Amino acid sequence: MIRPKPPITLAACLLALAPILATTARADTVTVFAAASLTTALAEIEAGFEAASDHDLVTALAGSSSLARQIQQGAPADIFISASADWMDQIEVDGLIEPGARFDLLGNRLVLVSHGDAAPRNIGPDLDLAALLGEGRLAMALVDSVPAGIYGKAALQNLGLWQGIAPQVAQADNVRAALAFVATGEAPYGIVYATDATAEDRVTIVGTFPEDSHPPIVYPVADLANRDTPAENAFLAYLQGPEARAAFERQGFTVLAR
């Protein structure tokens, strides 16, 4: 005698789907707005975070000033990593950061780079930068708004070098764009972060600017106030973990977060 199969109940269906539903419920997307100088390190961190969690990471990379303005205008970012405390201060004053959800993550150094090989130089008041440039241009990020450009201009002013070369500065939207000018030979020299030079084989570090010639280069991180999800908290924890630390250090960053 063939026994009829028991009817499939709703409860049985839900029980069978429970693992799938649980995974779907946990999965989320974290949108990170980050300074362009973090491009290489964040590519590695993105792959590691996604492999270690059920979450997706979407990164938007540009100059910190541009990203901060987009956040002020309501862009749907979850996390902001700035190359400047000043821009982070502005969005904090606007009430766009979760209370207590900001910390300093990284430090960096400022360097003079050349296209191809070049002799090392001592970066100081005696450097004849105008003679070094000749008829060429000095590539820099926007000197009045992008952190790398602001730091670079401050360093040149403090060393008494800005007046002599200001007309020869070729400004780019962000530090990676300035790096590209030098890498492709459009500019013989440029001022970028040490970590940018590490990421580009076609440039050579000519010298490092004295740390006291410009404000400290600090990268603050903040959880933005538009929403608060487990995925955001997981990513912030990952940023401070050993895998992210190793990725940042491989690119030459100083990790400040403990």
Automatic annotation (TrEMBL):
Native organism: Roseovarius mucosus
GO cellular component: outer membrane-bounded periplasmic space
Subunit structure, interactors included: The complex is composed of two ATP-binding proteins (ModC), two transmembrane proteins (ModB) and a solute-binding protein (ModA).
Family per record: Belongs to the bacterial solute-binding protein ModA family.
GO terms of biological process kind: molybdate ion transport
Entry keyword annotation includes Signal: yes
Signal peptide from the UniProt entry: 1-27
Full protein name: Molybdate-binding periplasmic protein
Residues binding molybdate: S37, S64, A148, V175, Y193
Gene Ontology molecular function: metal ion binding; molybdate ion binding; tungstate binding
Keyword annotations: Metal-binding, Molybdenum, Signal
